[in-house]
Amino acid sequence: RSAKEELETSKEELQSANEELTTVNFELRMKVDEAGRNNDDLSNLMEASEIATVFVDSGMRVKRFTPQARRLFSLIPSDVGRPLMDVTNRLRYDEIVEDATAAFKQLVPIERSVTSVDDEHYLARIQPYRTSQDKIGGAVLTFINVTELRAAENRVQRTEERLRDAIASSRDFAVLSTDLHGVIMTWNEGATTMFGYPPENILGKLVDVLFTPEDRAQGAPEQERSAAVREGRAANERWHLREDGTRFFCSGVMTPLNTGNGGGFVKIARDVSDVKRREAHYDEEITQERRSSAQVRAGSDLKDRFLAEMAHELKQPLNLIQVNAELLIRLPETRHSAAVQRLGGTIMRAVSTQETIVNDLLDFSRVQTGKLRLHRQPTDLVEIVRRFSEAMSLDVARKEITLEVQTPETVVCDCDAVRIEQVVWNLLGNAVKFTPAGGTIRVSVGADKRDATLEVTDTGIGISPEFLPKVFELFSQGEAAESVGPRRAGLGIGLALVRELVRAHGGSIKASSPGRGLGRSFRVKLPLAAAGLRRTDDSHSYASLQYRILLVDDDGESLSAFAELLRVEGAYVDTTTSPEKGLTMLETGEYDVLLSDIRMTEMSGYELIKRARKIKISKRIRAFAVSGDSGEGCVREALAAGFDGHISKPVSLERLRMSLREA
Fold first, then answer.
1. Half-sphere exposure of residue 321, counting CA atoms within 13 Å on the CB side?
2. Are residues 441 and 415 in the same domain?
3. pTM here?
4. Tens of pLDDT along 447-458?
């Protein structure tokens, strides 16, 4: 029984040992697998690596090598165990075995730059081979192909050399370098040319000597270096000093320079004194131009004031003549006298002619200075032509001229009606003036897809080919003065104004003539209005002026004549030459209309209407400013002051009725 128990015990021990062996065998298999995987990883790493690697043992015999090593060494798998010195290679590296032995024995890595027989460059590194037990079992030789890197380095080096040569020889740019404290270390030819210092006189000195005393006092050199460190660069434009003390304007930039010598700064600068002088000259030209423009504007304003004053002084007597002439033909005692009617009509036409000359001169000045403002609206050109043709009928009949008018039913333009009326009036007036008795004037209106056309043709004095290009010039009477005399030819303003007014509308005008004595033709093009737009009818009837009217004017003679004319037309009129009294009359009386001159000594018409509008009863009155200035500025000022409208002198009943109707 004892033997049986021992046998059982032995069996259990054997089973336990078997289990331990199984466990050990499993662990061993795991280690083998892990070693296999590591070997696979190493093999793949060596296969994929672009680095030629050779492992040698302590006897300098080949243990292992990578596929890339075959490009440099004549190795095959059977060469494992072969001494390294017996293996031929393509390297110009005679010390390879000595270096491998030294790395093995002295335990220090060795690194060399070597070349192959085909001039490829390699970085050779030889290190001791350490085992897992931290024992030295040989050496590892690696060879990294750096051919492309060396080529790139050579290219960079050549570029740097060329750049250094260019910088050193450049005369257009000053290039200098300093240490961290501003001591000049390098100095190129451009710096010598620009600053005047030869290298031997400037190297080792502070860069501060190149700055002006005022910049040095403000710490500019230190500030420039600080800005370069803080921001990576410091660009500036300032005055610098040459060796001889002269100043020049310089544009430059300073950047930090990191070198193996502790760093510093490099500055590149360019002399831009010529640019600075040109800029100063340009600034002076701009200043002079502004000064000249201001003088021109002042002269223009002075001219405008002069023209306005002249218009007032000229129109004041014209106003008196106009009012008296109109009164003459409307008085009951003279209303049926043909001689008086003819005389009054002649006087009124003369006044109208003089007024046209003054207005044309003022309008031409406004066009030239850009102060003329157009109030564009759809306007029937046919209606204007027919109306002015009828207005010319008496002059046409008196000269026994045939006037032929050919128009469609309507042609609507996009224009300022008043300005186009001036154009038509000037062209028709010129045709009548310069067409002799028995002649013919033809007026036609038409339209194409974009423009309305107006053509005025006569059989009058004509225009020579030499004078035709000058026909629209200001004060250009030319052949007209020779044909009808300077007095009848006028001042030569009308056609110049016509051209400017037409151009202001975006239109065009062209003059043509076969020659002197053969008549002439003027063709005008104006933009059409949008389809369907029509100007409202301006026709009106001349009703009786049955209003209560207050006239205020410090010119007693004009005041009396105009009051009498209004009374003849049925108006109740009170007059005063004193604006202060006029205010009292407005406060105590009842009036429908106030007509006040603007330029009065005691008080201007503007002040009068401002104070009058504060009177409760005067807020309902229709008030009109009367002035010899017909400019838009005067009209705007009158409306802004409180007037309902503006009537230009010489005042006629027709203008008064039109203003009352429109107010």
1. 18
2. yes
3. 0.41
4. 988 899 999 999
